[in-house]
Amino acid sequence: MDPKWVRVIAVVVVVAVVASGAGIYYYETHKSANCTVTSRSTLIWDQAEKPDTLDPAVTFTTPGWAAVQQVYQGMVNYNGSSYTTFEGVLAKNWSTSHDGFHWNFTLRAGAHFSNGDVYNAYTQWFSFYRSIVMNQAPTFILTQNFWYPGLTYYSNATANAAAASTMANFLNTTTFASPNAAQIQFMEAPNQSFQVINANTLELNLGFGYLGLAPYTYLLASISAPNSYAIDPAVVQAHGGVWAQTNAYFTNAMIGTGPYTLSSYDAQTGYALAIDPNFWGASVAAANPTVNLLQPAKEPVQIQFQQQSSVTVQDLKTGAVAGASFAYLGPDTVKQLQAASCVTVQALPDAYGATGGSWWIYMNQATAPFNNLSVREAVAHAINYAQIIQVAFGGYATQWVGPVPPSYPYYNPQNLAPYPYNLTLAKQEMANSPYPNGYSSTINYAYLNTGPDWADMAVLLKSDLAQIGINLNLVPITLNNLYAGQLVDTTTGKCTAQESVNGGPFPIGQEFYTSDYISPDDWTQNDAVNSGSANLCMSGYNNTTVNSLVYAAASDTNTANLTSDYTKMTQLMYNNYTDIWMVVPTAFAVFNPLLHGYIENPMASAEPYSLCFNTQSTS
């Protein structure tokens, strides 16, 4: 996903009020009466980035998830401000078999889409299989565990293609509001990933996806992602149906079960969310006061696309907006907002920064000089981390040890110290390498051109490595080009980052990952396993032991085993100097003091870090 935006909470005194029961933390703010907010009947937000699409099966960016979760809902989602416990949304409750392979969900009676169409086990079954048939960027979240009926992810290509075709035909021709007996029998058939038990009960059967015949520790987190949300089959069928491709209609249209409807969308200027007066959750919200995603919306929402941070800062200072999402909130902007009389900037716990983006420097192990262990170790010890954190990030960052980010389960279990700055040791390691007098060629270094912080870090890094005879050519790149660098050219079989395109090749560069959901394996499947998107074309690290440990840990629930697994993979990568784990920037909360009902969660994507706008108001 795109980097999670740095967050915006509110002002001078912030008091957490816990609602009766577990799970909801409302952040109310209080300040002097001379603070104002223009949006007293509509929540207005400045937003730096635009959604990629509004289709829950396709969106794979923070702004896309932010929009989708206001209109669509899933069976479960995060429990208020918790990111390790979950609450039922479209599901009333659930149970799990002893072996962890079978999850039985009882759905809420009376749930419906904003157009009045019924929600039930049949429509949820449709929604799950639609995501798999479409096979878009976030599909892997489901196909870790699920696949087509009667097959596994590793069935032969002919069988899988036939199953996909059969499923697409079924999804496009069945009337899910009133399926006939044969269609119900098809959905109730055993030996499939999503099995209808009856109209109000759906069973999820694990073990068919690419993780193999194994349960999955973080299932509830994974199905809290948008590609598990319910979408109306009738609307899909009326607008192009389901195929192994995107659906243009849902790029800028939404009809879901949530508390908002989409009232307008302009790809250039922004979009508006209206309160759904017929929101089904209103009838059960009173009986479930701690389930924040069941509460009716309090105010309409207007999102304004605003890429100029200077304008956003001014809007916050004057109260023209209730809050804002920055593409990146650097130390200079933080200082401006801290100085504003009616804006408070509050540093958030490490989990927020880690989720938003943990950053490292990769060194491609197939390319000289980084194919030498002594050189990689020399680089690790030549970097003055404290100086970079202070100068480039204004002190608003922490060093870390990968591959699992800080505050996540099984982060650095043996408490390895971050790589220390030790120039004497760095020079000694270079002397022990094939390049005792330094590397003769200048090396391209790619860094994100998103703000002065990363440019400043690159300049400091260049100075640091020059002291050990490694000369960098600093090349600023866009986020799109960074993502392009992670791809393998299907014609040549070569990694784009290591080719002469977009300013490359880049045998060393800046890399990061941002969570799809909070679990350690979401990271290790990207930055540790050899095929991971943040590893394959960057560091090119390939260790068969680590590969096995990554997949073993994803399907284990034994704490001792998991601690052992993550200890081993962390130690192996640490000793290999696979990556130089640099910084986790501090995430911040910044918004108007008159905004009430804010429920924060580091895995949410609204402002970001808020599950939904529905509990918020400025009146």
Description:
This protein has 19 helices and 21 strands. It has helices spanning 62-71, 121-134, 140-143, 157-173, 181-188, 219-222, 233-238, 282-285, 309-318, 331-338, 350-356, 373-382, 385-393, 423-431, 452-466, 479-485, 520-527, 544-554, 559-576; strands at residues 13-18, 25-30, 43-47, 76-78, 86-88, 91-96, 102-107, 194-198, 201-205, 260-266, 270-275, 301-305, 323-325, 344-347, 358-363, 397-398, 443-448, 472-477, 508-513, 579-585, 588-591. The chain has 619 residues and is of the alpha+beta class. Strand 10 and strand 11 form a beta hairpin. The chain has 3 domains: 1-48 and 259-347 and 588-619, Periplasmic binding protein-like II (D-Maltodextrin-Binding Protein, domain 2, 3-Layer(aba) Sandwich); 74-248, Dipeptide-binding Protein, Domain 1 (Dipeptide-binding Protein, domain 1, Alpha-Beta Complex), CATH 3.90.76.10; 352-585, Dipeptide-binding Protein, domain 3, CATH 3.10.105.10.
The count of strands amounts to 21
Helix percent band: 25-40%
What's the alpha carbon Rg, rounded to whole Å? 25 Å
Task: Figure out the total of helices.
Answer: 19
Envelope shape: globular
* Mean of all residue-level pLDDT scores: 91
Strand fraction equals 15-25%
CATH topology-level name of the largest domain: Dipeptide-binding Protein, domain 3
Strand pairing plus helix content: what structural class?
alpha+beta
In short:
The protein is of the alpha+beta class and 619 residues long. Helix content is 29%, strand content 17%.
List the SSEs and their pairings:
Elements lengths: L12 E6 L6 E6 L12 E5 L14 H10 L4 E3 L7 E3 L2 E6 L5 E6 L13 H14 L5 H4 L13 H17 L7 H8 L5 E5 L2 E5 L13 H4 L10 H6 L21 E7 L3 E6 L6 H4 L15 E5 L3 H10 L4 E3 L5 H8 L5 E4 L2 H7 L1 E6 L9 H10 L2 H9 L3 E2 L24 H9 L11 E6 L3 H15 L5 E6 L1 H7 L22 E6 L6 H8 L16 H11 L4 H18 L2 E7 L2 E4 L28
Parallel strand pairs: 3-12, 3-13, 17-18, 17-19
Antiparallel strand pairs: 1-2, 4-5, 6-7, 7-9, 8-9, 10-11, 11-12, 14-21, 15-19, 15-20, 16-20
Helix pairs in contact: 2-4, 12-14, 13-15, 17-18, 18-19
